[in-house]
């Protein structure tokens, strides 16, 4: 992935002093995800361009993406600018980011005519303008077309920025906003990311009209971290707490959608009277944890196509520390839902919680046949996003997750559920999950019950 930075303020080669990288050399740096290079395609008195090239080593990224099994091998990370490039920028231009220059200190606070180009970046043209224009940049974000045979535009843009800003401000804008546009982090987001965000956003983030979106995406949609960051940004942490007699009544905590979805599934399982349950596509084991705590479930099986997901689930469940009795209740199996697996037959209930939208539509009939036709549990519970509700998510462009192959409207989900029920001898009822709105609820749930045909 590539980023170029150009100035035309003579002598333009002073850019080398500000970046602490000599224009006559190619500089290389080892970074956690590969090798970063800094070079100067042009360096004259009138125009100087510094290029940051990140050569990603796929072997160093193994295991960093869990959305689907082939995601470790087939992805855009070596090519599209992201948090990988932002991290490399922070390492190789550390002094320039801080606004420090031993050789040209007077230029540190001097706005320079700058042009920045990022040839490939995941994101939309509209969002790029929303993020950079309030900071004084002129923005050109051109959608990159798909191959002519496919037609239309891809989800990538070529980004060009121009404006007069200090080099430090420009680099800090890029450090924060490249991951925001990509809306993904390649590393674990911990509380210390708040400090990085506030440090790099000093002087501009608090007044940015999209500060909530920026904080949410930069902090990987972790609500607690986002709330803390916004409070510190607004200075709320410095306010004195109200006197006890004037304090407001406690505000009831709003239950996250993931918890509401899990609770809806648990309620449906309890109503069905199931005791032997399959969690198909169990991922990291969020539902398995809740099932294991409830003694009514005598046999619990979690399956996933990803071996790594099952390893994460095993750690989360502390499988190695469970008592022998608890351990006997739980099994983790690797299997693909698009293939018939005799081990899955004979169970009371099966749950596909936020699973079907990760399956390519042409493969759905194979999943239907495997689950409803071959495994044939007495109850099947399916949850999936309602795409109509997406208008309520500020800043969301496209689907809710990069690995979603589709998201259905309420009518599309109802049609699919009705067809599957009719084909395989189930009765089906549909239920909303989460806050309802004019666009429906964020999650839709289908409860399938096997209809017993009299002998």
TrEMBL record:
Protein's UniProt keywords contain Magnesium: yes
GO MF assignments: metal ion binding; RNA binding; small RNA 2'-O-methyltransferase activity
Source domain of life: Bacteria
Keywords: Magnesium, Metal-binding, Methyltransferase, RNA-binding, RNA-mediated gene silencing, S-adenosyl-L-methionine, Transferase
Enzyme class: transferase
CDD domains xrefs: AdoMet_MTases (cd02440)
Biological-process GO terms, alphabetical: regulatory ncRNA-mediated gene silencing; RNA methylation
Gene3D superfamilies in alphabetical order: Hen1, N-terminal domain (3.30.1610.20), Vaccinia Virus protein VP39 (3.40.50.150)
Cofactor(s), names only, from the UniProt record: Mg(2+)
Protein name as catalogued: Small RNA 2'-O-methyltransferase
């Amino acid at each position: 992935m590539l980023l170029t930075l150009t100035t035309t303020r003579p002598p333009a080669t002073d850019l080398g002093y500000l970046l602490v990288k000599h224009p006559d050399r190619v500089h290389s740096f080892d970074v956690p995800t590969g090798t970063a290079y800094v070079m100067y395609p042009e360096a004259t008195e009138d125009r100087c361009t510094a290029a940051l090239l990140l050569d990603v080593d796929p072997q160093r990224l193994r295991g960093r993406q869990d959305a689907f099994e082939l995601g470790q091998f087939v992805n855009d990370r070596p090519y599209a600018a992201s948090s990988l490039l932002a991290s490399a920028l922070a390492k190789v231009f550390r002094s320039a980011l801080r606004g420090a220059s031993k050789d040209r200190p007077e230029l540190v606070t001097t706005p320079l005519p700058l042009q920045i180009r990022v040839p490939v970046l995941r994101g939309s043209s509209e969002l790029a303008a929303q993020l950079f224009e309030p900071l004084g940049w002129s923005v050109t974000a051109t959608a990159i077309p798909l191959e002519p045979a496919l037609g239309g535009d891809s989800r990538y843009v070529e980004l060009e920025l121009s404006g007069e800003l200090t080099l430090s401000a420009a680099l800090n804008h890029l450090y924060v906003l490249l991951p925001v546009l990509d809306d993904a982090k390649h590393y674990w987001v911990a509380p210390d990311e708040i400090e990085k965000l506030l440090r790099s956003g000093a002087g501009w983030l608090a007044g940015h009209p999209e500060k909530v979106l920026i904080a949410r995406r930069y902090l990987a949609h972790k609500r607690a971290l986002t709330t803390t960051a916004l409070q510190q940004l607004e200075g709320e942490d410095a306010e004195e707490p109200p006197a006890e007699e004037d304090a407001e009544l406690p505000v009831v905590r709003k239950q996250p959608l993931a918890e509401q979805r899990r609770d809806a599934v648990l309620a449906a399982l309890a109503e069905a009277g199931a005791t032997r349950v399959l969690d198909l596509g169990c991922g990291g084991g969020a539902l398995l944890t809740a099932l294991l705590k409830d003694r009514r479930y005598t046999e619990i099986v979690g399956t996933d196509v990803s071996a790594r997901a099952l390893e994460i689930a095993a750690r989360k469940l502390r499988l190695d520390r469970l008592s022998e009795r608890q351990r006997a209740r739980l099994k983790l199996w690797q299997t693909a839902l698009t293939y018939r697996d005799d081990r899955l037959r004979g169970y009371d209930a099966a749950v596909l919680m936020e699973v079907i939208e990760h399956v390519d539509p042409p493969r759905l009939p194979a999943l239907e046949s495997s689950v409803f036709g071959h495994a044939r549990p007495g109850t099947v519970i399916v949850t999936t996003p309602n795409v109509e509700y997406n208008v309520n998510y500020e800043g969301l462009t496209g689907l809710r997750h990069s690995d979603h192959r589709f998201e259905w409207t309420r009518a599309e989900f109802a049609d699919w559920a009705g067809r599957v029920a009719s084909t395989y001898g189930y009765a089906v009822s549909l239920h909303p999950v989460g806050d309802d709105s004019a666009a429906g609820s964020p999650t839709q749930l289908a409860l399938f019950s096997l209809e017993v045909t009299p002998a």
